[in-house]
Task: inverse folding
């Protein structure tokens, strides 16, 4: 990175940096070009070329898989940087070093270091750098300064035109593709796959989750076109077996080099076992296709923590958070809740974004949730609680729907319903609460409930 005098941390506060970033183009406003981010990293001295990269795209599972990859790499003794989005509670979560978000002072210093270059790029084109482009540049600079041995980089949206895609990743991971952000990426799997295939570069190793046939054809065609090498879950690697248990599940995974048996994964749901298989194959590929020490694999997976993914944040009654925000993610979450928890009844607290497939999400919730409390998060994109309630009444019936626009009130009502045992003869104290529908909703609930850090 180009050497520049550092500003003293006291010159800016975290709130100052947050306001400055939020004043830029939001993440939901897209312009399909890499020109601005390329200009920024060029001024910074191309920090993204200072370390090898494992890059992830896909519709669901990117964050969980990225965290597992990061944990495995650290188990091998490597220093890691991880970039993820969106965040649950604090922007600092987006930039992690050695498995932990950078602290506020480091976040402030990184912003202060890149700020002079932001002004140069802003003046050089018709549009200023966006929020996401800026924080991507900050992450690449922070990783170079650390320094790190390897970066785990999750795309924000899509792939080809995503700001993270100024890297040439040695390993590209494509998690399951489904329709999401249809107004940006298209409403067909093959169209979405065309965009996501952009992270597959010449000579890279590609780790593929099972995909719809149309999407798989697009991805494999890209592999052939650029001369990459692909490994497919269910063919070259995959989940051998899984057994749900207390606090997670016991899995056996077939990697690229060997089978890894009896691994405890402290996460719920079949989808997390498949994410673990992707992570294992990605790390094996990164180290040259050789087998990993089974004890390192077991210890690393046993330490995995994924905030906001079926995360228990309260007991008596149990309150669980999940950041699922599209039909495919909600389907996986519902299956996992039924498998891992014996809630009777399950009370849902749902807050969704207005641009999501809310009807379809509610239809997935209805067979599982005894009652639903409709609420909203604090962002302008949130679907109003009353509008969500109207949709829910058409699916659940009016007797099972409650509307409380304030999230804290909604949680209180849901907790009360769970404690009472519902209206279907369930035992008092057997109920649970699931807060779901949006990353922002899960994050704000986590803050309100003082969830584990």
Result:
């Amino acid at each position: 990175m180009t050497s520049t005098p550092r500003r003293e941390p006291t010159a800016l506060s975290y709130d100052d940096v947050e306001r400055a970033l939020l004043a830029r183009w939001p993440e939901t406003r897209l312009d399909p070009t890499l020109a601005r981010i390329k200009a920024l990293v060029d001024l910074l001295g191309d920090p993204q070329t200072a370390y090898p990269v494992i890059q992830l795209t896909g519709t669901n599972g990117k964050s969980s898989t990225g965290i597992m990859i990061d944990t495995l790499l650290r188990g091998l003794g490597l220093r890691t940087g991880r970039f993820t989005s969106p965040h649950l509670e604090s922007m600092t979560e987006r930039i992690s070093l050695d498995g932990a978000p950078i602290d506020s002072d480091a976040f402030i210093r990184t912003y202060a270091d890149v700020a002079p270059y932001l002004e140069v790029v802003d003046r050089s084109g018709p549009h200023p750098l966006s929020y996401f482009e800026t924080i991507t540049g900050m992450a690449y600079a922070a990783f170079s300064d650390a320094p790190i041995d390897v970066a785990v980089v999750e795309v924000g949206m899509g792939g080809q035109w995503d700001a993270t895609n100024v890297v040439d990743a040695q390993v590209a991971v494509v998690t399951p593709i489904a329709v999401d952000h249809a107004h940006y990426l298209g409403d067909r799997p093959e169209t979405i796959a065309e965009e996501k295939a952009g992270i597959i570069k010449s000579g890279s190793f590609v780790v593929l989750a099972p995909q719809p046939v149309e999407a798989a054809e697009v991805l494999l065609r890209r592999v052939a076109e650029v001369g990459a090498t692909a490994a497919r879950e269910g063919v070259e690697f995959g989940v051998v077996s899984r057994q749900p248990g207390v606090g997670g599940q016991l899995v056996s995974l077939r990697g690229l080099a060997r089978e890894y048996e009896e691994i405890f994964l402290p996460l719920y749901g079949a989808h997390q076992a498949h994410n673990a298989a992707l992570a294992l194959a990605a790390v094996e590929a990164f180290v040259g296709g050789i087998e990993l020490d089974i004890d390192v694999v077991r210890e690393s997976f046993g330490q995995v923590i994924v905030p906001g993914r079926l995360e228990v944040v309260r007991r008596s009654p149990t309150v669980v958070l999940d950041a699922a925000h599209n039909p495919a993610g909600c389907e996986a979450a519902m299956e996992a809740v039924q498998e891992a928890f014996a809630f009777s009844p399950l009370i849902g607290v749902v807050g969704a974004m207005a641009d999501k497939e809310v009807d379809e999400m509610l239809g997935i919730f209805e067979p599982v949730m005894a009652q639903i409390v409709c609420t909203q998060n604090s962002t302008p994109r949130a679907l109003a609680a009353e509008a969500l309630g109207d949709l829910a009444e058409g699916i659940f019936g009016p007797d099972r729907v409650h509307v409380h626009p304030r999230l804290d009130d909604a949680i209180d009502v849901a907790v009360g319903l769970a404690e009472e045992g519902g209206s279907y003869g369930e035992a008092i104290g057997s109920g649970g609460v699931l807060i779901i529908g949006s990353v922002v909703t899960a994050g704000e609930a986590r803050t309100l409930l003082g969830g584990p850090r």
Remarks:
- The chain is about 40% helix and 20% strand.
- The chain has two domains: 9-302, 309-449.
- The radius of gyration is 22 Å.
